Amino acid sequence: VAAAEPLPERRSLLAAALPFTQALLAQVGRTLARAQAALAWPEGSPPSPPPPPPPCAPLSDADLRTYLGPGGRLLRPHDLRLHVYHGGVEPGLRKVVWRYLLNVFPAGLSGQERLAHLRRKAGEYAALKVLLAARAAPAELALVGAAVRKDVVRTDRGHPYFGGPEEGHPHLAALQALLTTFALGHPRLSYCQGMSDVAAPLLAVLDDEAQAFLCFC
């Protein structure tokens, strides 16, 4: 069956629209050509990404000292972070460097001031832990404690720091207390599954409940 011819009115509308459509397509083509020329892209292929920076060795104690100034003040925090990003940290130095990376210290503290800051924060954490546990309703405390313990008893148990019997395990107890204190202090967030996977390596490396809490927060 032959297709019906467009009505005269339809033909006139199509004829009137054709120049406009052709002009629009031509303008789009010119714009695209200018954009490709400005960006220097070969047609159909994106630009090559810049080469990655060369890898560097893990941060050593000697490297760390190059980022410190008089009195042990950290003078180049951005450069320190870049070094760690590209090379990591020697395992024995992580306890020191992670506290810089996780903003435990206010900027500009000397070595002695950092030690005093850690002592003060340890006292504040101990007081906060007692206060939050005393202020929480028994039902809330039981609910949060049960949720935290469900993860704690199965987090990194293959690691020597968390291995061994559960009963009376000091490191499991510290992880439980750290996460419970965080959850009670942040009731809108509380405890979420997987937080133990973040807190556990902090506790294992720092070997200090209060400092791990500071890094976790």
From TrEMBL:
Region span, Disordered: 40-59
Biased composition range(s): Pro residues: 44-57
Gene: Tbc1d25
GO cellular component, one term: autophagosome
Protein name: TBC25 protein
A biological-process GO annotation: regulation of autophagosome maturation
Source organism of the structure: Calonectris borealis (Cory's shearwater)
Family matches, as InterPro entries: Rab-GAP-TBC_dom, Rab-GAP_TBC_sf
Domain Rab-GAP TBC: 88-217
Keywords noted in UniProt: GTPase activation
Gene3D superfamilies: putative rabgap domain of human tbc1 domain family member 14 like domains (1.10.8.270)
Pfam families, per database record: RabGAP-TBC (PF00566)
Gene Ontology terms for molecular function: GTPase activator activity
